[in-house]
Amino acid sequence: MKPVNVEIVSFGYLHDGPPPAHLTIDLRAHFRDPHVSPELRYMTAADEPVRTAVLGTPGITDLIEATARAVAAFASGPSAETVVVADGCAGGRHRAPTFAAALAARLRQDGYTVALRHRDIGRPVVQR
Question: Would you kindly state where each structural domain of the chain is located, as residue ranges?
Answer without folding.
Answer: 1-6+35-79+96-128
